[in-house]
User: What shape does this take?
Amino acid sequence: MKRTLLLSLLVIAFALHSCGAKKNASKKSGERPQPKETVQKQVPHPVSEKDYDDPKLKEETKVVEVPTLSAVEQYIYNFAGIAQEEMRLYGIPASITLAQGILESGSGKGDLTRRSNNHFGIKCNGWQGEKVYHDDDTAQECFRKYIDPKYSFRDHSLFLYERSRYAFLFDYEREDYKSWAKGLKRAGYATDPRYPQKLISLIERYDLHNYDLQVIGKSEGKDLPRPRKITHDKNVHHVRSGDTLYGIAEKYHLSVERIKKLNNLKSNHLSIGQILKLK
Assistant: This one.
């Protein structure tokens, strides 16, 4: 009898323990999970900061008039070296940059280019530097103005390098100008359905791909102009990531108002890649 009673008590105790465990488990499973503290990942700027203060950008570009050359040949003569330098820094084929410049600027003779040093038709889109207005798809659209053609070439490099829709282009071989030309159209750079063919035609007619080969060490031995030797110029500042007007003013021992006046700035907002005159 005692043994039977003892077994009964043990069974009841086990049942109560199991019920309590299930209740606790049920309670835990019904609790709302606490959200994890989200830490936003800081994505570094894709270009080294030193590139924004690149002394190679500071020498004035001297455009040489050569009577024996056609307009396109003269454009190549003057800007091939700059296109090659951009290729070394950003991986965009010099042939593509040159062909786009020839096409977009009318070999440097177009009205917009002559008034603004804008060789690639890049519009303002938040640009805080100097501007010009030009009839394009609609009347009097806003375009960026540069103090030197060289900055237009750098802006073109950054335009492609920093936008995700062009990222796939950088998977192509640097000498694969045909894929680059077709890829630019596919990414929406131009609306002209014949844009790739026009670029490829210019590249092949004027042997522009040889400038790519020279950069990557596969030159066919043709006599090509080398990049210009560029020296530092303290009269301008190339805005880079983290720059503020106050910091720039302090660096060059100027007042914020002086810099704003020199550059016709209406606010303290700066754009990466913007060129500020200091004198």
The first helix runs from residue 2 to 30.
